[in-house]
Amino acid sequence: MDAIALLIASSLNAGTLLALAALGLLINERAGIVNLGAEGLMLVAAIAGFATAVHTGSSWLAFAAGMGAGALLAGLFGVLVIWLNTNQYAAGLALSLFGTGFSAFVGIRYTSEKLSPRSSYELPFLADIPFIGPALFKQHPLVYGAMVLTAALAWFLYRSRAGLVLRAVGESPESAHALGYPVRAIRLAAVMAGGSLCGLAGAYVSTVYTPLWVEGMIAGKGWIALALTTFATWRPARILLGAYLFGFVTMLQFYLQGQGVQVASQFLSMLPYLSTIVVLVLISSNAAFIRANMPASLGKPFFPGS
User: Which segments cross the bilayer (predicted)?
Assistant: First the structure.
């Protein structure tokens, strides 16, 4: 039972970083912008957060640094695709490649650095409940923050006027522009907000999830987060559930190894990415379902006055 509780706890931990990044990408895509640079954003934010934690000893300042780095890079990406009308897919891939190389270069001096032991977190009284306490109530505050953020984003998108405007920009930027809304400014704000959440996810990886810096440590999680937005059909609650599902698959390999299951470690390491491919194939087989849920102007450039 202790091993199962640990599996649940580690699945929530692993799912949190995917949820944060995927929620950020959801904001982008609801505004009509596809950002394929999540992997690069998360890597740059990871080294920014880790370096800040090394020099200040504060994980919260590290999160702020990661969010700032993510927002800055996302803002540059936004200027390219929103004002200069460069191809969103090409610019996103370039951002991913840039982030990979830049983080590796900056992170050279930090590969041997170690963070000071972080405080243990637990909710009073609830953490003492057998099985449930270790499984659910001894998590980093950001795990619970991701749940609150999911609820807040769902309310924002479906219950607030600003969320309605954001969705209108993603569905029909021409109509939103005709009504007087600054479509480009709204898209840039959405891209930067999404980038800051990807940055938060990257900083979480390097300071909490695996508190160290290793080149390429995001290891495809940015791409999984991107796939999660489609998997969840662009809905926040489904993103959170999907993130926990992928987090469970990621942690399952370690659980099975700990239980002595004789399965090749290489196959177990493939499970998160294999499950991502399978899910995307299954969802993509129903094109009408995708079209019904996908923002109508996703990936399409907007030219005011055209």
Answer: 6-26, 33-54, 60-84, 91-110, 141-158, 185-206, 212-232, 239-258, 270-290
